[in-house]
Write a structure and sequence with these properties.
Shape: globular
Strand content: 5-15%
Largest sheet: 9 strands, mixed
Radius of gyration: 22 Å
Helix content: 40-55%
Structural class: alpha/beta
Order of helices and strands: EHEHHHHHEEEHEEHEHHHEHHHHHH
Oligomer: single chain
Distance between the termini: 17 Å
Length: 438
């Protein structure tokens, strides 16, 4: 789907990736960015999210009828009131033996199993209905305040990403070889499906629409950064929130793990990097490459790209401006988690929350690795408050660097250098082949 002006202004999409409790960082950043957009006479038309990003996308879409500062403040207050018991059931408690038996039965394939996850997210269903006004999403879509809301989940039957799109029936949905777009009236089941982290949470059964019924798991397993759905739905500008730096400098400065035998947290941290962090960086760099090589005319095979896409019935590539908010240092959110955890639950203070104490023990003692994993599941009031403040700080830093809000220069923030013609052509061909495979 091609982009275009919406009431005399470009279409804006918010792209929100998954990251568990890190979703508070997204809310903090948006609490600064949305009012700044409103001052410019713009607003988010398309909300696209995966996992906790889908929760935030639905939340902000339900608040779109409010002035930007009021909607953002309502979202912040909702996150500040969140506790672990709003998301998952107690790990240590009267039901612990029963849960352990279900997990063991499921692992061994015995009757009575069916746990399919280490944690029980049953409270999340009730919490989502309390946090999000689903009817308000429908009203805001029908009134045109929001053009579409997109939540990405992974189909266990097909092993591919499915984008559940809440939009008016007169709006055509994109077609894609890699993403299935399904029109849906978003509800709790779609959002919980998008946020069903594999191994931690059980898959979620989606019953509607009928053609997409089945079991789903976290959309991050296939598509954590829904930039492609945002652009396919017609975005001319994308607002992206990341949880680690996405420039080449940030990628190159990845901290080395401590020497010695790796612990569980070291292994799991690498898995989460590959699942949640690296795809965001890769998608942002792909966006920059398209801007620089295919659209701006700097040595790229534009004619071939146009011909290929025209032959497949797709619109030509477009230059997409972006706003990108992320921490300055890699691992910053993990360091915040480790510091807050130590102050709140270190030593005997862990008795105030046996669940967090157990979680910390299982993750080991290496601060960097443990902090990274804690930052995904640490639904603690003080940690959430610090993440919100961090998101606000980094959003303000972006606005300081970009007084006009938007940027499309691949070399400005992402480190995509304009090099020699031969080197550029080599990179262009490589990027072109990668895009064709997708």
């Amino acid at each position: 789907m091609s982009g275009g002006l919406n009431g005399g202004r470009p279409r804006v999409a918010a792209v929100l990736p998954g990251g568990g409790a890190r979703g508070a960082y997204e809310v903090g950043a948006l609490s600064v960015l949305l009012p700044a957009l409103e001052v410019r006479g713009e607003r988010v038309d398309l909300w696209c999210g995966t996992s906790v990003g889908a929760i935030n996308a639905a939340l902000f879409a339900s608040l779109a009828h409010l002035p930007a500062d009021q909607g953002a403040e309502a979202a912040v207050e909702g996150w500040l009131s969140m506790t672990k018991s709003d998301v998952i059931s107690r790990v240590i408690g009267p039901g612990t033996p029963r849960t352990a038996l279900r997990i063991a039965s499921d692992f061994l394939g015995l009757p009575g199993g069916g746990a399919s996850g280490l944690l029980d997210p049953a409270p999340l269903r009730r919490s989502l209905d309390r946090w999000i006004d689903w009817l308000s999403i429908t009203r805001n879509v029908r009134s045109g305040l929001v053009e579409a809301v997109c939540a990405v989940a992974t189909s266990l039957e097909h092993g591919a990403p499915v984008a559940f799109v809440h939009a008016t029936t007169d709006r055509p949905l994109p077609t894609s070889d890699t993403i299935r777009y399904v029109r849906a009236c978003l509800g709790s089941e779609h959002i919980r499906a998008s946020a069903a982290i594999p191994m931690l949470f059980p898959p979620v059964e989606v019953t509607g629409p009928a053609e997409a019924a089945g079991f789903y798991t976290d959309g991050a397993t296939r598509l954590n950064s829904p930039i492609k759905p945002a652009v396919s739905l017609g975005a001319d500008r994308v607002l992206i929130i990341g949880f680690d730096p996405v420039g080449w400098a940030g990628k190159a400065s990845r901290e080395r793990r401590q020497a010695g035998r790796p612990h569980f947290a070291d292994v799991a941290g690498n898995v989460l990097d590959g699942l949640l962090v690296d795809p965001v960086a890769a998608d942002v760099h792909r966006l920059a490459a398209v801007n620089a090589f295919f659209v701006e005319g700097i040595g790229g095979p534009q004619d071939g790209a146009r011909t290929y896409r025209r032959a497949r019935g797709r619109p030509p590539y477009r230059r997409i401006a972006y706003a990108l908010v992320a921490p300055e240092r890699r691992g910053e959110l993990g360091r915040i988690a480790e510091r807050v955890f130590g102050a709140r639950y270190g030593g005997l203070r862990g008795l105030r929350s046996p669940d967090f104490a157990l979680m910390s023990r299982l993750l080991g003692t290496r601060a960097a690795s443990r902090g990274e994993l804690l930052s995904f599941l640490f639904f603690d009031h003080e940690f959430i408050a610090e993440l919100i403040d961090a998101g606000r700080h980094d959003a303000e830093r972006w606005l300081d660097r970009h007084p006009r809000f938007w940027c499309a220069d691949a070399g400005h923030d992402l480190g995509v250098e304009m090099r020699s013609e031969s080197a550029l052509e080599e990179d262009t061909v490589r990027e072109w082949r990668d895009l064709r495979r997708r």
